[in-house]
């Protein structure tokens, strides 16, 4: 016991500084674990907490696909979800860009209002270029707050210089 008292009396400043350094390292370790490593297994964090209560059903997915396939210029439709986004990809043949936008907008009639309130909807419209038809690829989106219209990007396509 006398050795401990002598150590304390002779090295009081050093012991206090070492204690402060150890406490700082423990606090930094806790911060690193909490914020950088984390224990959450989802890449989306807690943003998807209520999404399990309203998954996109197969019959709703089929209804969206069938609504688009009613048009004879549609060759392919795919609908899938990832997180809180419904992705709809439509491939056209011999259709103007404006007509393709009109066809894709009809899907909003089929999509349930509950889905519109919980999911963002992203559209990708594609038409391959041929000798007679100019191709295009355009993307549009409908977010949760605006359930009646689709916002289309206004990017001009890249053309090859001759």
Q: Could you give a short description of this structure?
A:
This protein has 162 residues and is an alpha+beta fold. The chain is built from six helices and five strands; from the N terminus they run αααββαααβββ.
Strand order of the largest sheet: 1-2-3-4-5
Which class of the largest domain in CATH terms? Alpha Beta
Q: Any low-confidence stretches, pLDDT <50, length ≥5?
A: none
N-to-C SSE string, H for helix and E for strand: HHHEEHHHEEE
The overall average pLDDT, rounded, is 84
Number of helices: 6
Q: In percent, how much strand structure appears in the residues?
A: 15-25%
β-strand number: 5
Structural write-up:
The chain has helices spanning 2-10, 12-37, 58-69, 97-105, 107-110, 113-118, and strands at residues 74-82, 85-92, 120-127, 136-142, 151-152. It contains six helices and five strands, in the order αααββαααβββ. It folds into two domains: 2-37; 51-152, 2-Layer Sandwich (GMP Synthetase, Chain A, domain 3), CATH 3.30.300. The mean pLDDT is 84. The chain is elongated, with a radius of gyration of 29 Å. The chain has a five-stranded mixed sheet. With 162 residues, it is an alpha+beta fold.
Please name the defining characteristics of this protein.
alpha+beta; elongated; 162 residues; 21% strand; 6 helices; 5-stranded mixed beta sheet; GMP Synthetase, Chain A, domain 3; 2 domains; 41% helix
